[in-house]
Structure formats: structure tokens, C-alpha cells
Design a protein that fits this description.
The protein is of the alpha+beta class. The protein has eight helices and nine strands. The protein has two domains: about 110 residues, Arc Repressor Mutant, subunit A, CATH 1.10.10; about 120 residues, Beta-Lactamase, CATH 3.30.450. The radius of gyration is 20 Å and the shape is globular. Bound molecules: zinc ion (ZN).
Length: about 260
């Protein structure tokens, strides 16, 4: 007699959420989803990585290092679920630098991050939440990341990718300077943020002055503080910078709509 496989055959994030009847962000219970696809989640100290997955047949174990922020832990579990859906049959160990960075150099890790974002922040629910906030600023980011229980960095990347904020760019700075940036899809490539921070920018102050508070509201600034192309002096943009633990300083820029026409 053939064994009946109770597991869903389609592990795409959309079909998993549909099978489980998820209709609201707070119903996305990542450990319940893991259980549903045959995985148990264990917290244990891991020597060389932040999370890993081992499996045999239709069963497996996701291990995550304890002590992280709950939002980060949820993203790590969802990331490992991505490996389970797409890279089955391998033992995968993921370093903290692999998870949530949407790594350009590593296809496998980027695919797992994309899967995690789709599972924790499915477009239909996510865009509906974004549309509640007309402008992409820190206040909107906090509201959306609270609704989805996701980290500010992962949430902001998703907001940038959502097409709801066509003029938005996010830039990440660490002690060593600019780390990476991400721009809304329709922004022309020549609006590429400068490598060096303007010494009068809030981001500069946040990076170099441990007591400086986050920037409570977006402020207007000349576009040439952030861009050095020929057209920059013609425009004003808004900037808002804030600290993100484990990431450094993040800045949200909103360009003048004329800059992307
Ligand atoms: Zn990974």
C-alpha cells in the first residue's frame, strides 16, 4: 500500500500561507509553519553560524542560536525554511552575514532571504499595510515592522521593493562608511548615493557621536549632499537617519518626484 504523504507538495510562501488560511500579518506563526512542513525548531548554541537546517526525507530540524532579537529569529527560521523548500538534501549552515543581507554574491543565500521576506511579509498583506502610510519615513517603518513583527532592516528593504514608494532609497552606513543601498525599482541608476557622508548630514553625526539622537522627522536637504551627478544641484530631497542595532546607521531618502521622470 502506498504511503500517503501528508505534506504539502507546493512549498511556495504564497501557497503555504493560503493552505494555513493566513489572512492577517499577526497570523504568520513561523514555528507553526515550520511544523506544518515537517520541521522542528530548536534553540541551541551554534559554533560557526546563526542558523542551520538538517533534514532527512520529509523531516528536519532548524537550529537557531538563542539570544537574538525575536524579529531576527523569525527571519532566520523563515530563511532556513527557504533552504528547505529550495535546497533540500543539503545540510546548510548560515552565518549571520548570510541571513537578511540579500547578498549579491551568493545566489543560494539571496534566494533564502527572498523566500523569508515573501513568507513573513507577503505582498498582498504588506502592500495593504504600506498604503496606510503615505510617506516612507521612520514612523511608517516602525508601524509596518510592528504589524509584521519583522526587523526594521528587513521591513525597510521590503518597503523599498514594494512599489508603493517610488521615490525612496535606503542607505546603510557602518563605522567603515557606506555599506550598501537599495533604491525603488523605477529610480534611474545615475541617482547613486555618494560613498562619502556629508559632514553636515544627520547620518554623519549618528555614526560619529554616540550621544546623538535619531532624527525624529525627515528634513529637507539639497540633493547634492547625497549625489554628485550634474543634475543634483537642481533638487531638494528629504533625509531621515536612525540607528539600527547590528546594522549601523540607516538613512531613508525620498527624492523629488521630478528626479525620476
Ligand atoms: Zn542560508
Amino acid at each position: 500500500m502506498a504511503r500517503i504523504d501528508p505534506l504539502p507538495t507546493n512549498l511556495s510562501p504564497e501557497s503555504l500561507l493560503q493552505s494555513l488560511g493566513v489572512a492577517e500579518p499577526r497570523e504568520i506563526d513561523i514555528e507553526a509553519i515550520a511544523y506544518y512542513v515537517g520541521l522542528r525548531v530548536k534553540r541551541r548554541c551554534l559554533k560557526c553560524c546563526e542558523a542551520m537546517i538538517t533534514g532527512k526525507g520529509n523531516k528536519g530540524i532548524i537550529s537557531v542560536a538563542p539570544g537574538g532579537m525575536p524579529q531576527r529569529e523569525r527571519f532566520s527560521i523563515a530563511h532556513e525554511l527557504g533552504h528547505w523548500a529550495m535546497h533540500r538534501g543539503e545540510t546548510v549552515a548560515c552565518r549571520s552575514t548570510d541571513i537578511g543581507k540579500f547578498s549579491k554574491g551568493n545566489e543560494v543565500e539571496r534566494a533564502a532571504d527572498q523566500y523569508a521576506a515573501s513568507l513573513l511579509m507577503p505582498w498582498s498583506l504588506f502592500k495593504a499595510e504600506c498604503r496606510e502610510h503615505r510617506r516612507l519615513d521612520l514612523k511608517a517603518l516602525k508601524a509596518v515592522s510592528a504589524a509584521f513583527n519583522t526587523s526594521q532592516t528587513a521591513t525597510l528593504i521590503r518597503m523599498i521593493d514594494s512599489d508603493v514608494y517610488p521615490t525612496a532609497i535606503m542607505i546603510s552606513h557602518g563605522a567603515g562608511g557606506k555599506k550598501w543601498h537599495r533604491a525603488a525599482r523605477g529610480i534611474p541608476g545615475y541617482w547613486f548615493p555618494k560613498a562619502d557622508l556629508h559632514s553636515e548630514s544627520f547620518a554623519f553625526d549618528l555614526l560619529h557621536n554616540a550621544n546623538a539622537p535619531d532624527q525624529g522627522f525627515p528634513r529637507k536637504i539639497d540633493a547634492d549632499a547625497w549625489f554628485d551627478n550634474w543634475a543634483a544641484p537642481k533638487y531638494q530631497i528629504t533625509e531621515q537617519s536612525f540607528r539600527v542595532p547590528g546594522e549601523g546607521v540607516i538613512t531613508i531618502l525620498n527624492l523629488d518626484p521630478d528626479m525620476i521622470r
